Amino acid sequence: MTDKHYALFEEQQKDRGIDLEAVKQQLKALTIETPSWGFGDSGTRFKVFEQEGVPRDPFEKIEDAAKVHEMTGISGSVAIHIPWDKVDDYGQLKQHAADHGVRIGAVNPNLFQDDDYKFGSVTNVDPAVRKKATEHLLECVDIAREVDSKVLSLWFADGTNYPGQADFRKRKQWMRECLAEMYNALDEDMRMLIEYKFFEPAFYHTDLADWGMAYNLANKLGPKAEVLVDTGHHPQAANIEHIVAYLLDERRLGGFHFNSRKYADDDLIVAAHNPYEIYLILQQIVAAKYDSDSGVALNAENISYMLDQCHNIEPKIPAMIRSITNVQSLYAKSLLVNHEVLQKAQEENDVLAAEEAIREGYEFDVTPLLHVVREEMGVPVQPLKAYKESGYGEEILKRGKGGASW
Ligand code: PSV
Ligand code: MN
Fold it and tell me: Which ligand 1 atom sits nearest the alpha carbon of residue 232?
């Protein structure tokens, strides 16, 4: 069945002038990191519904992430969050990941769960708190070194609830000072990704509210600092694909936290309701890969794709698999845009033809293509089905309830 459908698809793409081998290569090169915290219990401020079988420690979180990778073949690294994933021996954690066929990816400092950070961490008016926060950032650089990770992923909950509560400009400067200390501690081949978010947990202002602030900070720190775009962190109707294109053009797009949002920072399965938005974002990246400016193209090839989600009511491992395959499928579609046709339409100001050139990729059914790619990669053709049949979901039930939260 796969063969018949693929043969037709292959013919269609040939007729359109698409190099399917190049598309397949790009698909095989795609990697999407899973977040350790997405395997733990999570919820809203109203209720955390504990699930049976949730990992009890960072080692078990890695085992679950490894299962996701076994099914998808494209999620071979796991981001960790410190102190949620604090262990006595990081060498052991790194080995555990390797023993399970994955590696540790981005190290995420956590500067939002300590009482000292009530009024801010790196922006706190108290120098002692800022010092404590900076020390944690430096500790995370050491951890990254120990687990052989090259990426530090930074998000700050810092902000205020009321007008006049704090001095915006002083806080801006304090943040830069603390981050400069961290920047100077990075190894040559390490990168720090700066994530922004315009609200929550603060309600009046957030110190790094948008991509412009994150970009400015990254720019001031130096080339090892880049911007991380979390798809859940924008106001309604923000044009995320435009932000992505802008950052690519500045060669400062470091990575993504993919998830789906409708109202707040919902952290739901990627593309659960907004597949076209994710497609348009990926399409900008694909277009940048074709850019004659080698710097832009290089940036597009070096993006860290990560998921940042919490599964509150659905089983976590299959939800993670679903997110990975959703991104993979939308990426496949975005690779089917004919860039020559698009460019010609743009040059001629042919609005309808340009819009059609973009939409065309989205409208193909890429299932036969993905089946062939997975077959060639030696992973299950239908990852979710294979997971359900693997028995892993039943096996982990012995962990019981009351696993790690986040
Ligand atoms: C904040 O909302 C965020 O997106 C950051 O990436 C955090 O590290 C993560 O969520 C924690 O859940
Ligand atoms: Mn995030």
Answer: 4
Distance 81 CA to ligand 1 centre (A): 9
Q: Which residue has the least CA distance to atom 2 on ligand 1?
A: 265
* Tokens at 183, concatenated: 């920047």
pLDDT given at position 3: 80
The total of other beta-carbon atoms located within 10 Å of residue 388's CB is 16
Q: How many structural domains does the chain have?
A: 1
Average pLDDT over residues 81-90: 98
pLDDT in tens, 116-166: 999 999 999 999 999 999 999 999 999 999 999 999 999 999 999 999 999
User: Quick check: is 54 in a domain?
Assistant: yes
Contact indicator for 87, 93 with CB cutoff of 8 Å: yes
Position 360 in a domain: no
* CB of 195 shorter than 6 A to ligand 1: yes
Q: Is 197 in the pocket of ligand 1 (CB under 6 A)?
A: yes
Residue 10 inside a domain? The answer is: no
pLDDT of residue 392: 98
- Indicate if the pLDDT at residue 95 is higher than 80: yes
Q: Are 371 and 6 in contact (CB under 8 A)?
A: yes
Separation of CA 156 and ligand 1 centre (Å): 9
Average pLDDT over residues 15-44: 97
Q: Average pLDDT, stretch 360-389?
A: 98
Indicate which residue's Cα is closest to atom 9 of ligand 1: 308
88: its two tokens: 């006595």
Beta bridge partners of 226: 193
Question: What CATH number does the domain containing 222 carry?
Answer: 3.20.20.150
Q: What's the full length of the chain, in residues?
A: 406
Give me ligand 2 centre to Cα 16, in Å. Answer: 38
Which of the listed residues 44, 227, 230 should we mutate to test ligand 1's pocket, taking the one with most ligand atoms within 8 A of CB? Answer: 230
Residue recorded with tokens 């001095």: 167
Whether the predicted pLDDT of 293 surpasses 70: yes
* Greatest CA separation for the chain: 67
pLDDT at 406: 73
* Domain range enclosing 110: 29-336+381-399
Q: Return the number of other C-beta atoms located less than 10 Å from residue 82's C-beta.
A: 18
Q: Whose structure tokens read 């720190």?
A: 221
Q: What is the pLDDT of residue 2?
A: 59
Q: Is the CB of 308 under 6 A from ligand 1?
A: yes
Ligand 1: atom nearest CA of 230 is 4
Look up the pTM and report it.
Answer: 0.97
Determine the distance separating the centroid of ligand 2 and the alpha carbon of 191, expressed in angstroms. Answer: 16
| pLDDT-based confidence at residue 405 (cuts at 50, 70, 90) | confident
For atom 5 of ligand 1, the residue with the nearest CA is 155
394 inside domain: yes
